[in-house]
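Appendix B. Chain record.
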Amino acid sequence: MNARRTIATVLGSAALAAASALTAAPAQAAGPTHSVEELEFTIAEHPLFTEVCGFPVELHVWGTWNVVAWTDADGELTKEIRNFRFRSTSTANGISVDGITLGPEVWTYADDGSSEGRILGVVNRRVPGQGTVTLFAGYEVVVIDGDVETVLASAGQREDAALLCSAFTS
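Structure tokens predicted for this chain:
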């Protein structure tokens, strides 16, 4: 191939590459990000437990979420998978009940600001050395639109707070 033909081929290839770049698909967001969020709090009188039991029940919770988040090309959050693992201690009348809560949440976020969550979880509360007091295992689908939270579906075994109260009086 002579020098003129080589230059023409290189320039033609460069022009084709430039044209392809201009007509390529829109830019897409980078892959998902990963983070870990920690949480710890104490409620001196847990509203539900205190109401059901008829005496103050303190709840201390600590743990983490392992978060995988996706964004669109504009950097807006579109989806999150939040795997959670929390421990807790509920205390009343000098008795403590240990708990563990595990599960994933999958959230999708719409352009209008609403979101939908699919939450799977297990909560197990135990008196040390005595065994399980109460258990929750279930699934919920929740839609949040502004300040309104709507449960679309809910299934599974529900926790019986009265059983927790019994553990504090034995």
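Further analysis of this model is presented in Appendix C.
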